[in-house]
Every structure is written in structure tokens, then in C-alpha cells.
């Protein structure tokens, strides 16, 4: 963790709370050693056993500059060892100088944790004698291999929540410096959050938020509200970027929607863990993401249909719409997404609409011919025009959509209609629409089938209503009188 490993107190080889005089004297001493091209000492409070440390003329000057103001001193002290109880702390520090990390850990662990006969561990009460042990165990656990990050962070929050933390402040800063428990806790948590998001703390962000939610302390609500706003703002920025890209190039809208889904996933999960799924901040943010992903689906589908692309754009649009559905929280957003999914499902089977009406035309023609028979007349349908209508209205890509559907009832209806229509056509016209029959390897003749009973929808909406009226008119036009 860089805030600890590169702490200015550590770079100078001092403990938190060192006086200005000690800081200046140690700075001068180290500068002389480095100028003489000698190795800096390792028996000070830099504790090389805890990780590599870089001590050059530049890093010494930089460390000193970070310990000029009281606020800077406190910020650095939050992430370095403090001698708050010489009786116990100095023994632990000597163990660290000797390279005995485990000995130091055991000293502070016994002062902060009570182990009962059944080996269950619980926190001890924070007192003036063990307050520094809570803080020092945090610093050590964050650096120790396999250190318990949960225990470490909770320990330091207990330390900062305690009434005895004022002793820490007065040791580190001048008596004129004014701060309070909440400000210190926020400084600590914001630094830790930065290290976590940068990947320097060996701690998952979700785990960090879980730790914070596991205990109560003064700054908890303020910190979580600040963090939730950061996540919400990050997500809003992602949405704005996606919207601009989608508007500029609708051909790539599906890719843009998928990227938004992936990029916002972690932030949405973190936001939910902070405020909960029922919180207005989360639900509003999630709905905004869902709406933008849905719009990517809509724009991509409409564009692909307009330019008549050859790829399987329907399934891509459907997948994106269902991603949006999984994110949405609010009823209005869910309803909008559901309507679009239903429309896509209907459009997946628009071939059925065409085949139904072709079948209906044949059935009506049969009834009409029964009536005309008494006059020695009959009508027939222009098969060439029927085939042209089917080929234009049901491209091969639409058949592929049906093949990939999970709606077996609709597939069965489609197969029945295909068998019926092909069975009505003369042999010379069957082969031209043979692609409709994707399930059969038999290229033999088709037999005419009777009208099947089914539970298909009697009424279509929107574009399908317009399509139905168009086809009915066209079918009627195709019927010619023959005497």
C-alpha cells in the first residue's frame, strides 16, 4: 500500500508525531549520508523488513516537504506507526527492526483482541493504554503478507472513533491545529479508497465497502454518501459518452450498448452495496443505464433494418434489450423495455404473418370456387406473384431468426404454414422458396394440408397491422378470374 510504504515518516526513518526539530535534524543527517554516497541506516524506524524503501536526495526533500503543515502531518500519521504507549509499542518496534514481524503482530494483537476458551475472538475495549495498538496493528496488517484487511481497517476506525484519539492529534499536530473525529475519519477513508481503486491496497473495492458497512462510526454516512455520488457521477459520464457515440454512428450502437453494460457493471454493483437497491440514487442511476442500453438496441435494429444488413441484427438487438431488462429497477423503465422485447419477439416471427394471410387467401379462394362452380367458373392465384411476395417478405435471414427461437409453439406454427403453402404450389415454384423449410432434408413433393388449429394471436399491433393490410390487398389483387 503506497500510502504506507512511501509514507514521508517512513522515508525519514521517524515515527508519527516526530517534532519539527527531529524532522529537520533527520533530514540533514540523511542528506549528508546520501551526499557521501553511503547507504542510509536500516536500524531506524523505516523498517526495511516491511518492504523496499527508496531513499535518495529527491525523496528525502519530498518527504520533508510533506511534513510542513499540521494537516499534512496528520494525514501521513494516519498511515504510519505511532508510539502511543512506550511500554508496549517500543518492544514491538524493536521486533520490527530485528525483522520479527510476527512478534510485533502478537504484541498488538493481544492488546486489541481477546481470545476466549472456545477460540472465538472479540475486540477489547479501547483504552488510553491500548489505543496505539489499534492504530499500529492497522499499519502492520496492511503490509503483512496475508494480513487481515478487514480486521486492520476496523481496528483503525475503532482507534479514530475513540475519545482517546485526541491524544494522537495533540502528539502529531500543534496545539493550535483544529480538527475533529469526523474529519480524521474522512481523511483516512478517502485515502484508503484512493489506494483501493488504484489497486495498491490488495483489497477489492466491494470488500472495502462491505467492511465499512459492517461497523458504525461518526463519518460513516457522510463517507458513503460521498462515495455513492462518485459512483453515480462516474456512471452518468459513461452514459453521456455512450449517447454521443450512438448518436454519431448508429451502425455501432450495439457495440456501444455492450460497452456501457460492461463498463458500468462494477460501479452499479458498488453503488448498490452502499445505498441498497431500493435507494432512489441507485434506482435512478440503474434506470438511466438501462434506458441508454435499450436505446442502443433500438437504434441498432432500426439502422440495420433500414440498410438491410446481412448479419443477425435481430438477435443482437434482443440480447441488448434483455441486458437492459436485467438492470432496470423502476416500473416505467421496465415496462418500456418489456414493450420493446415483445415487439422484437413479434418481428422475429413476421414470416408467420405473411404465411397466415397467404394461407387465408387460398382458403377464401376455395370457398369462392365452390360458389362459382355452379356457374362453371373458378378462380386461381398467380403463383409467381405469391412466390415473389414470400421471397421479398421473408428473406433468408428471417428464417435464421426463427431457427434460433426458443418459442416452440411459434416454430411449430411456422412449420405447419410452410408445409401448407409449399404444398399448394406447383412443383416449378416450390424450389424457389425451399429455404423456408430449414428443418427438412427431404426434397420430395409436398402434400396439401388441412387448416390446422392453433392458439396464435388474432390481432397484431403497430407495423404488423400495416403489414397485414398491405398483404391482404396484395393477395386480393393476385386472385384472377378464370372461366
Structure commentary:
This protein is mostly helical and 483 residues long. It folds into three domains: 2-218, no CATH class; 224-347; 349-482, no CATH class. The chain has 23 helices and four strands. The protein has helices spanning 2-5, 8-12, 20-35, 57-65, 70-77, 86-97, 101-112, 131-143, 149-161, 165-172, 181-197, 205-213, 220-248, 253-275, 280-307, 313-327, 331-348, 350-373, 383-393, 396-403, 408-424, 427-430, 463-478, and strands at residues 113-115, 121-123, 378-381, 479-482. A hairpin with a 5-residue loop joins strand 1 (113-115) and strand 2 (121-123). Helix 13 (220-248) runs parallel beside helix 15 (280-307) and helix 18 (350-373) packs parallel to helix 23. The longest helix is centred in the middle third of the chain and has 29 residues, at 220-248. The protein is elongated and about 120 Å long.
Entry keywords:
483 residues, mainly alpha, 3 domains, two-stranded antiparallel sheet, 66% helix, disordered C terminus
Could you write a compact summary of the structure shown?
The protein contains 23 helices and four strands. With 483 residues, it is mostly helical.
Gap between N and C termini, in Å?
Answer: 94 Å
- Return Rg in Å: 37 Å
Low-pLDDT residue intervals, each spanning 5 or more residues: 442-465, 476-483
Category by helix and strand content: mainly alpha
Number of domains: 3
Strand content: under 5%
Write the element-wise H/E pattern from the N-terminal end onward: HHHHHHHEEHHHHHHHHHHHEHHHHHE
What general form does the structure show? elongated
In helices, the fraction of residues equals 55-70%
Strand adjacency order, main sheet: 1-2
User: Total number of helical segments?
Assistant: 23
- Major sheet details: 2 strands, antiparallel
Let me know the average pLDDT.
88
Amino acid at each position: 500500500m503506497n500510502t504506507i510504504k512511501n509514507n514521508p515518516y517512513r522515508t525519514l526513518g521517524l515515527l508519527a508525531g516526530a517534532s519539527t526539530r527531529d524532522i529537520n535534524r533527520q533530514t540533514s543527517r540523511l542528506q549528508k549520508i546520501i551526499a557521501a554516497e553511503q547507504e542510509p541506516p536500516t536500524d531506524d524506524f523505516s523498517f526495511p523488513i516491511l518492504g523496499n524503501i527508496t531513499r535518495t536526495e529527491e525523496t528525502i526533500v519530498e518527504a520533508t516537504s510533506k511534513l510542513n503543515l499540521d494537516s499534512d502531518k496528520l494525514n501521513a500519521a494516519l498511515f504510519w506507526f505511532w508510539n502511543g504507549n512506550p511500554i508496549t509499542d517500543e518492544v514491538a518496534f524493536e521486533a520490527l527492526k530485528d525483522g520479527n514481524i510476527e512478534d510485533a503482530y502478537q504484541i498488538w494483537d493481544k492488546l486489541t483482541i481477546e481470545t476466549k476458551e472456545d477460540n472465538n475472538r472479540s475486540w477489547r475495549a479501547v483504552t488510553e493504554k491500548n489505543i496505539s495498538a489499534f492504530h499500529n496493528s492497522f499499519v502492520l496488517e496492511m503490509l503483512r503478507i496475508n494480513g487481515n484487511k478487514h480486521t486492520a481497517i476496523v481496528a483503525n476506525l475503532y482507534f479514530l472513533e475513540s475519545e482517546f484519539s485526541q491524544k494522537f492529534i495533540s502528539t502529531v499536530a500543534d496545539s493550535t491545529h483544529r480538527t475533529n473525529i469526523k474529519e480524521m475519519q474522512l481523511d483516512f477513508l478517502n485515502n484508503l479508497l484512493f489506494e483501493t481503486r488504484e489497486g495498491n491496497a490488495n483489497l477489492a473495492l466491494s470488500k472495502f465497502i462491505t467492511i465499512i458497512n459492517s461497523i458504525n462510526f461518526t463519518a460513516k454516512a457522510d463517507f458513503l454518501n460521498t462515495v455513492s455520488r462518485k459512483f453515480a457521477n462516474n456512471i452518468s459520464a459513461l452514459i453521456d459518452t455512450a449517447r454521443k457515440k450512438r448518436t454519431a454512428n448508429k451502425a455501432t450502437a450495439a457495440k456501444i450498448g455492450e460497452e456501457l453494460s460492461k463498463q458500468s457493471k462494477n460501479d452499479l454493483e458498488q453503488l448498490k452495496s452502499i445505498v441498497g437497491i431500493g435507494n432512489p440514487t441507485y434506482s435512478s442511476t440503474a434506470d438511466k443505464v438501462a434506458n441508454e442500453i435499450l436505446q442502443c438496441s433500438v437504434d441498432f435494429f432500426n439502422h440495420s433494418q433500414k440498410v438491410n444488413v446481412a448479419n443477425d441484427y435481430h438477435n443482437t438487438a434482443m440480447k441488448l434489450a434483455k441486458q437492459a431488462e436485467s438492470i432496470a429497477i423502476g416500473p416505467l423503465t421496465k415496462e418500456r423495455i418489456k414493450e420493446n422485447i415483445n415487439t422484437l419477439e413479434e418481428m422475429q416471427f413476421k414470416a408467420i404473418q405473411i404465411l397466415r394471410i397467404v394461407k387465408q387467401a387460398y382458403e377464401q379462394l376455395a370457398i369462392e370456387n365452390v360458389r362459382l362452380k355452379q356457374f362453371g367458373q373458378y378462380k386461381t392465384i398467380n403463383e409467381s406473384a405469391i412466390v415473389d411476395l414470400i421471397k421479398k417478405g421473408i428473406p433468408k435471414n428471417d428464417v435464421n431468426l426463427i431457427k434460433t427461437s426458443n418459442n416452440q409453439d411459434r416454430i411449430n406454427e411456422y412449420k405447419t404454414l410452410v408445409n401448407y403453402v409449399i404444398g399448394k404450389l406447383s412443383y416449378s415454384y416450390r424450389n424457389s422458396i425451399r429455404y423456408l423449410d430449414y428443418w427438412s432434408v427431404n426434397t420430395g413433393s409436398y402434400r396439401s394440408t388441412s387448416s390446422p388449429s392453433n392458439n396464435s394471436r388474432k390481432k397484431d399491433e403497430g407495423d404488423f397491422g400495416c403489414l397485414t393490410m398491405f398483404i391482404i390487398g396484395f393477395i386480393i389483387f393476385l386472385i384472377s378470374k378464370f372461366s
